[in-house]
Design brief:
Blueprint (H helix, E strand, L loop, with lengths): L7 H11 L9 E2 L6 H5 L7 E2 L7 H7 L5 E3 L6 H7 L4 H7 L1 H4 L11 E3 L33 H4 L19 E2 L7 H13 L7 E3 L16 E5 L4 H13 L1 H4 L1 E5 L3 E3 L7 E2 L15 E4 L2
Parallel strand pairs: 5-6
Antiparallel strand pairs: 1-2, 3-4, 6-7, 7-11, 8-9, 8-11, 9-10
Helix pairs in contact: 4-5
Length: 287
């Protein structure tokens, strides 16, 4: 007896099963006919399509795509960046709290903000207020704006006023009193420079060479004698508080200083230790 060949539709099914499948293609399997006669009779039988999920490069790329980010530029605001990515300013802030910090009113050019992904931890700080319009480039919708007083930076602390002098300087004058600001400067010196309260301080005199100095009550001679260390301390105090004391210039040990940040300049020899200011700093104050 002759061997029967397998029906053609069976071989066709096997061929389809072995055929290579292109990425993303749909494999169509044909339903098994009840008998070869049905096929030869012209009976139409609908094939059953079976989709085989196949990973494609495009799908893989989408699954592994990095989270979107936005680099802050000058003029950017939290609200504008959030709106451009279809989210609220609060969502954007909570996602980037670790970058922005506790204050959503302050973002800076160059910061990279994630526009997708989980929120990041913010530094320990009080609850952040809503961003204010025009506050360092950030703005929030009007409904979320907090009162200005809630987020306005604290004003800079005013410089502490100098304490009142603890002592009054005894100034030797022979041509009237020194100017009030000169007396005040001397009071500071004897109160704050150790040892200065025990020396003689020369004030006004008519025979001074500089009419805008001793004769005008605008100069003092701190007579330290041989105590050069005390003279150095008195000079250093004047340099450190130049503007507060109203210093114009200082002469000490045959040198003159006309600015707290300037350099000492040598003076001509006047012939004696006192004339060369070797035993006393001379200070002229601004009138």
């Amino acid at each position: 007896m002759a061997k029967h060949r397998a029906p053609r539709y069976v071989r066709t099914k096997k061929v389809l099963a072995k055929a290579p499948v292109a990425a993303g293609a749909t494999v169509v399997g044909f339903g098994v006919l009840s008998s070869p006669a049905q096929a030869s009779a012209g009976t139409t039988v609908l094939a059953h399509a079976v989709e085989v999920p196949v990973a494609t490069p495009a799908a893989d790329a989408g699954a592994a795509a990095p989270e979107a980010d936005h680099t802050v530029e000058r003029g950017d605001t939290i609200a504008e960046i959030a709106a451009a990515h279809g989210q609220s300013w609060r969502e954007l802030y909570q996602r980037n709290a670790g970058v922005i910090g506790a204050d959503p009113n302050r973002i800076f050019p160059g910061q990279v903000l994630l526009t997708a992904g989980p929120a990041t931890a913010a530094p320990a700080a009080p609850a952040a207020p809503a961003p204010l319009p025009g506050s360092a480039g950030n703005a929030a919708p009007a409904a979320a704006v907090a009162p200005l007083a809630a987020v306005a930076p604290a004003p800079a602390a005013a410089p502490a006023l100098a304490a009142a002098p603890a002592a009054t300087a005894r100034i030797t004058n022979s041509a009237g009193s020194v100017a009030p600001q000169v007396q005040a400067a001397a009071d500071r010196v004897v109160s704050e420079v150790p040892g200065a309260d025990s020396i003689t301080i020369g004030g006004t005199r008519a025979s001074a060479a500089d009419p805008n100095g001793h004769p005008s009550g605008l100069a003092l001679d701190y007579m330290v004698g041989s105590d050069a260390a005390l003279g150095d301390a008195i000079v250093a105090f004047h340099v450190a508080h130049w503007d507060e004391l109203g210093v114009e210039y200082v002469i000490w040990e045959q040198r003159i200083l006309t600015s707290p940040t300037g350099a000492w300049k040598a003076m001509a020899d006047r012939g004696s230790a006192t004339a060369n200011h070797m035993d006393h700093p001379h200070v002229n104050y601004v009138g």
